[in-house]
Write a structure and sequence with these properties.
- By secondary structure, the chain is α+β, with helices and mostly antiparallel strands.
- The protein is built from five helices and nine strands, in the order E-E-E-E-E-E-E-E-H-E-H-H-H-H.
Length: 163
């Protein structure tokens, strides 16, 4: 989890760093936060994104909280399996409705980053589970991939030089 604020004189503009997680961004600043996906489609405000090299983040007078979610955590927190998120960028309101607005308001009213992190933890990680649990095989595979830092090839696989 990280907090970001940009109140510079000019617009904030950067390309995202690819990451093996879904990124939840809750925007509570006075200026619009804009994410542009690989197709050029733009999403403003709070969102969930699969970060790819071509995703661009921009805005002015932004304040937001970013939470990176593993596929397992994303399933529990978002209420849908990550594979069901068709687009690279989805509005948080499309997933949570009015709850997304409530969380944004609570973050805006918080007086410090520590308080915002506590609000996020209470709001995001204690959401009621509305989706079925992740298959144990998927959980096992994810833990193996993380433990091996991506070098795990799976049961019965032979890893060696490509000839």
């Amino acid at each position: 989890m990280a907090g970001f604020r940009d109140r510079g004189p000019g617009p904030f503009d950067l390309r995202s760093v690819p990451h093996p997680a879904l990124t939840l961004v809750v925007d509570f600043g006075t200026g619009p936060l804009v994410i542009e996906d690989t197709t050029g489609r733009q999403q403003r405000g709070s969102l969930v994104a699969r970060l790819t090299p071509a995703v661009r983040v921009s805005g002015q007078n932004i304040e937001c909280l970013q939470v990176r979610l593993s596929p397992l955590a994303a399933h529990a927190v978002l209420g849908v399996p990550p594979a069901e998120l068709e687009r690279a960028v989805v509005a948080l309101e499309d997933l949570w409705g009015r709850d997304a607005t409530r969380i944004r308001e609570r973050l805006r009213d918080a007086r410090s980053w520590e308080e915002r992190f506590a609000v996020a933890e209470a709001s995001l990680f204690r959401r009621p589970g509305t989706s079925p649990p992740v298959d144990p095989e998927v959980t096992w595979a994810w833990h193996r991939i993380v433990a091996s830092r991506g070098a795990f090839a799976g049961a019965g696989a032979v890893v060696g030089p490509v000839v």
